[in-house]
Structures are given as C-alpha cells and as structure tokens.
Amino acid sequence: MALTIDDGANPEVLGAYLRFARDTGARLTFFVTAYYESWRIHRDALRPLVDSGQVQVGNHSWDHPDLTKLSADAVASQLRRAKDWLWDNFGTDGTPYFRPPYGRHNATVDRVAADLGYTVPTLWSGVIGDGVIVTEQVVAQMARKSFNQGAIVLGHANQLSVTRVFGEYGQILRERDLRLVTLNDVLIPPG
C-alpha cells in the first residue's frame, strides 16, 4: 500500500510524518507543494530519507492552484518552479510523478506535465479524509476503510489530528499484513 502525503501546509504535521517514517521504517511518498515553508524547515531531516529511497517526493505544484483553470504557460510555470525547487533541495525533481492539485487535470495539463518529464499523473484509490479539519476518529475510520492491498492512499501534512493516529495506522497495517511502499517500489519495474 502506498501512503502518499500532499501539501505540507503545517510544519508540525510534516515533522511528525518524518519522525513516523524514521522511527518505523515506513516508506512514504510526499507530493510537495513547494511554496509551503514546512519543506524548507524540514529539508535537512527529509533529505537523507529521500537519498536512501525510503521517502520519495513528487511534484504537487508551486502553490496549489487548480491547474485546469490556468493557461498552458501558467501550468508550466507552476510545475517548473516546483521541479526546480525539488532538485535544488532534494537532488531529485520527482519525475515521472505529479499529483495535480484537487486531482484535477485535463489534456493540456497532462501535455505540459509530460513535456517537463511528469508522465504519471498520480491520483488515489483511498483517502484519509484529512484534507479538511477532521477529528482523530474520522481519520482513523477513513484509514480503516482505505488501507488495503494495492491501494494508493491520499493524506495531507496539514491537520494535527492525523498525527495522533499514527499508532492506529501501525495497528491497521499489522492486522491486514500490509507494508507501506513508495510509488517507485510498485510502479517502476526492478532493473
């Protein structure tokens, strides 16, 4: 199961996810909205996890607009700024994965993204439900519903409630004999 984490609006939540990865060995994929200060604050903690392959980063745009409402040039600017920022800070640009904000993309967005090397618009099959303010109980309930073999689960590094259910995440994963993987682990053939 791939747990993918978007945005990064809250530095405390991003830091908690990084501790979760470090302390448990969890493999995660972060879709970085590069505008958020959280990524700069936690760059030094995240970089070794990215370098080791335990954590993967992908492009979630510069500042999270609905890309389908932008011109092709503006889409390119959003993705290119984030791509350059990822490279400068983590030594990778996240290609071939990008997650369009709100999951919204169209032929223009996909073409522009592909021209920049982002050939895999990455959506999801399950959600934690933490894209808005929610209780710990809702996050845990959504995790129980979404954590399944082969799932790509969408979470966010925005709401503190999610940080208080990491123990329950571990319990669900053990009960279902699931292991967390990055997108590269499952989508890139070994070679």
UniProtKB/TrEMBL annotation:
It holds the Pfam family Polysacc_deac_1. The keyword rRNA processing does not apply. It comes from the Bacteria. InterPro entries: Glyco_hydro/deAcase_b/a-brl (IPR011330), NODB_dom (IPR002509), Polysacc_deacetylase_ArnD (IPR050248). GO terms for biological process: carbohydrate metabolic process. GO terms for molecular function: hydrolase activity, acting on carbon-nitrogen (but not peptide) bonds; metal ion binding. PANTHER family: CHITIN DEACETYLASE 1-RELATED (PTHR10587:SF133), GLYCOSYL TRANSFERASE-RELATED (PTHR10587). This is Polysaccharide deacetylase family protein. It comes from Nocardia panacis.
